[in-house]
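dumping this here so i dont lose it again. seq + smiles for zinc ion
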Amino acid sequence: MKPIPNSIAAQAAELAEWRQDLHRHPELGYNEHRTAAKVAERLGAFGFDAVETGIGGTGVLGVLHGRNGPGGAAILLRADMDALPIMETTGADYASTNPGVMHACGHDGHTTMLLGEAKHLAATRNFDGTVYFCFQPAEEGGAGAKAMLDDGLFERYRPRAVYGMHNWPGLPVGEFAVKDGPVLAATGQFTVTVTGKGGHGAAPQFARDPIVAAAHLITALQTIVSRVVDPLQPAVLSVTSFQSGSAFNVIPDQAVLMGTIRTFDDAVSDLIIAEMDRICARTAESFGVAVEVDRGNVAYPPTINDAAEADFTESVMRDAFGDANVHRGHPPTMAGEDFSYFAREVPGAYVIIGNGDSAPLHNARYDFNDEAAPLGTTYWARLVEKALPVAQG
Ligand SMILES: [Zn+2]
Ligand SMILES: [Zn+2]
């Protein structure tokens, strides 16, 4: 195991300060104005060759050339900047000052680690080629990565490969993990509106009860994963909300269901959606109600790690942190990530960095572990040095 570079170890207190400042001022997707301004200001102060702001809303892209100036291969390192609509209960002295908004997924830490690498690498320039530092908005359901791509990100800054990193509660600090193939799920959401005919609770014969129809629908939807999808294909369909009615003696007009679909394969997602449409249409018919399905406009593709890039990042981590601290084949989860949009365009690898024994992600008591920041920054540093080595003359 190589030691953490001195310049990064010396940065630890500064990284914690940056991270806690971001934590104190969390901003929701596409509203990361203060965060993006801080990022852009720091990249400029580090002496970056170019900094573009306002990409896909609030996205920031910093360009850093190596020893030999422009030209050569380019890679992209990505961090996310947005927070979540959660009321923080950590009690930390740097807790959120923006009520109801919180960095509960550690994107404050991700932004900080990439800024740490930006400072380190701008000083050393110990590489040959170009590194794009990408700070994206709205990872939490807003598809900020897609917004940046739609805004021409890869037309102006096309990398050979993309790299992402997420902190992982439960994995000890100092440990890392990566796997090839699917690592995070495709995500889709749905709202199903069942419209019947309301009436007196004592006279159902004059009504078309949307609650009974919706209840049957919920049960029928469970058969998609259990009876239609190949048992060897991971899939989740969860109905997570059922809203209807407000009185004990009134049959309401409407029932509204919401939920999520998770898979690792677009074909499985398509199958689930087709089956869901069929069940909704037939249930409407059999209960004499109308059923409308809305899938919103955000459906993240699955995050698929390129096998060669997964091997490469694994070798970077083993070299930097020792074999005992690196796990290959970390079990995938059915959570989603919009890093998938980048990794669909060019080869990529998304790795996991231990956050220690913290509360889970998206929990009001969660906090990014500042001890992990210098390690994440070191991973970025080693990755660039190995991906874009300076030619030995
Ligand atoms: Zn999250
Ligand atoms: Zn996250």
